[in-house]
Amino acid sequence: MALTDEAYAKACCADLYQSPWARQILGDPLHPGGLALTNRLGRLMDIAENDWVADLASARGTSAMAISRAFHCRVVGVEFGAGPVAEAHAIAAAQSENNANSRGYFLRGDAESTPLATGRFDGVICECSMSLFADKPAAVADAARALRPGGRLGLSDFTVTPGTLPAELQGSVGQILCLAQALDVNGYAKLMETAGLKLTHQEDASEHVLKILDGVDAKLAALPILQQISGGAFGGPDDNEMIRQAPGLVARIRELVAAGELGYWLFVGEKPS
Q1: Per-residue pLDDT tens for 124-133?
Q2: CATH number of the domain to which 238 belongs
C-alpha cells in the first residue's frame, strides 16, 4: 500500500469510527463494557495516582478523562482524526472549569508512530482500536517504546476466529464494529510478546458483547420514533443503509458469539525492568 493510500485508509477509518451512525447506535464510548470495563482494564494495569498514561485512538477523550478521574492520573490521548481531538480539547476544558478532577491532554498522532516520549509513560491503553490498525506490530512496538521499564500496555478488543467472519461484516460496518481486521486471542498475545512485553493477564469479557447488542436492539427499535421527532431520516444515505442492515447484522453477531467464534478480551503486557 502506498503511503498516501495508507494515510487515506486511516483517515477513513477514523471518520467511520466517529460517524453519526456509530455514535447514535453504539453510544460513547464505542466499545463493549463501557467505562466499567475501561476501569477494569486500568486496575489490571495497576494504574496509580499521578501516573502518566497514554490512550491510543482516544477519539473524543471519553475513556481518557474517565481514567484520569478514576485513578487520579494524567492521561495523554492520541487520536488520528482532527475533529475528535478538537472535541476532546473542548470537553476537557469544560470539565476542568467544573472542577471534575480530570487531567486529560489530547494531540493528533498516528498510533503506529506516536509523538510520545520514549520511556516516559507508566501505562499505555488501547481499547477496541488495535483491530483497526493497519500495522498492528508497529503500534504495539511503539507503545512498548513509550513505556518506562515496568510499565504496562493494556489492550481490550474483539477477537475473531480466522475465516469465520461473514462477508457482510468485512466492509465498512465491520470496521465500525472493530471486527474486520480483528485477531484471535493468540494473535493479540503474540503481538505483545513480539514487542518484548511479558503477558501478565488475559481475560475473557465476551459477555459484554451480548450486553452491547441488547442496547443496540433497543436503540434500533426506538429509532423510527426519533426519526419522526427529528422530521426526517437519520444521517445521510450511507447511515440509513447501515441502519436498515443493522438488525440482521446484530443477529449474525449473536450467532458468532454463541459459537465462540467472536469474543472480547482484555490483555495486559509488562515491559521488563
Answers
A1: 999 999 998 9
A2: 3.40.50.150
